[in-house]
Each structure stands twice: as C-alpha cells, then as structure tokens.
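for the writeup, i need someone to sanity check this before i put it in the appendix. the sequnce is what the collaborator sent (i think, or maybe the updated version? ugh). structure was predicted straight from it, no edits. if anything looks off just tell me and ill rerun, i have time this weekend
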Amino acid sequence: MTRHRFGASPVVTHAVLIAFSLLMIYPVLWWIFATFKSTPELVLPTLWPKEWLWRNYPDGWNALPKYTFTYFYLNSFKLNIATTVLHVVSASLVAFGFARLTFPFKNALFSLMLLTIMLPSQVTLIPQYAMFHSLNWINTYLPFIVPAAMGGAFFIFLLVQFIRGIPRELDESAKMDGCSWFGIYWRIVLPLTRPALVTVTIFSFIWGWDDYFGPLIYLNSVDKYTVPLALRMFVDTQSAVAWGQLLAMSLVSVLPPVAIFFFAQRHFVEGIATTGLKG
C-alpha cells in the first residue's frame, strides 16, 4: 500500500510563519507609527497615521525644561561605558583566577560568589543604600561604578565556564616559554575569550542602559539623570502629556542597545553557545 503524506506544503508553512511573525511584530510597528501621531489620534484603532507629525522628534528632544535629551544621552553613555569597561576588565581577571589559579578556599569563595546571584536585589537594597549614604555617595555615579569594578557574579561565572573550556596545554606551553600568569591571561586566555567578553559587554551595557530603579534611588539632581529617568519626567513635569513625543523619545532611547546587539550579534551568539563547553 502507498502511504499518503499529510505534511503541510512549504507554502502553507511559510504563510503560517509569516502570519505569526506579523502578529508578534505588530506592537513594535504600532509603536513606531505612533511616534508620528498626535495625542488624540493615539486612541483610534488605526496603525497608519492620518497626519504625519515629524515634529514629535525635535519637539520631544527639547520638551523637558532646561535640559535637552542630548544631556541625558551623554549621562547614560558616560555612566554605561565606564561600568561596562570595568565589568569586562574585572570580571575577566577574577574569572581567570577561579578557572586557572590554585589558592586557599577557592571552592568556598566561588560558591559564596554564586550565592550572591540567588539574592534578590530587594534584599540588598536597603543595606546598600545605607552603606552608600554613609560614604556620601548618594547623588553620584559611584554606587554604579564601584560595584562594577568588582566584576559582577553573573559575569564572573559566565567567563569562568568559558575559560574552563580552553585547553590547559596552552598554559603549559606559555610557561615553558617563560610567560607569567598575567602574560598567560593577557596573551593566551583573553584573546580566546573574545566571544564571552562580547557577551558580557552586551549584557552590561543593555542592563545598565535600561536600568530605571537604580538611578531613581541614588540620583537626586536632574543634571545627573539618565535616559530612563528623563522619560519619566515627561509624565511628572507636564500637565498634559504629549504621548507622541514621549513615544518618539522612547523609540530613540532603545537605538543604542539595539545597535550594539546587532553589530556584535555573531560574537554574542557564539559566546552563549560555547559557554560551559569543556574542550
């Protein structure tokens, strides 16, 4: 007997996938088109604007009193570039020590570090705030920069798993050539961990750029505000919120992390795929 195949044809499969893709992307499309609408038009069940208000972008950029979005963009870039660089440098050094060196209480310290990942941020919020307040770090960027210099438990764990996959024979060869431990880290391990370092860079920058709660707690002066706090000011400082301008600025605010992700996408996927594999 001849068996009949009941599998869907490629045309049907692609049609279903396209339909679901459009369904998933519809909120993003609505968001983009909404940046060109007036506030009364936003409540209408239409996607395409009746009148394209291109001025929502320049008006939104200059909508907040005394400061333009250029100021908040620069604040976010300065803060997140500093924290990202510190995360990458310190996390790679600590991860190299855990993955390659032998020292007393190594396993206990590594386990203790992993335990900090399991602590919710709400548990440590009040003790951290009290500590930073006693150090007179409130309304400065130090509560973000100094912890970044400690590496971050998640980033250290990610890099440790990646470094463990690098053959130790490379270390032995470097030692025979007279290379020190720092030389092995700098010349051998660091170049080979580039995919994982790119992953740390992307995670650190995106998490820092999107952070709203941290700057809300530690920053008091408007001249130190980051982009998320600036977006909140649209609601706090305006009696009638210009939603078109707010949506336009929110769209502009996501461009840097999206651009970084797409430019480094290949290394990011490689870093995620190979982390934890031992060679």
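The mean pLDDT is 87. The CA atoms of residues 84 and 205 lie 6 Å apart.
thx in advance!!
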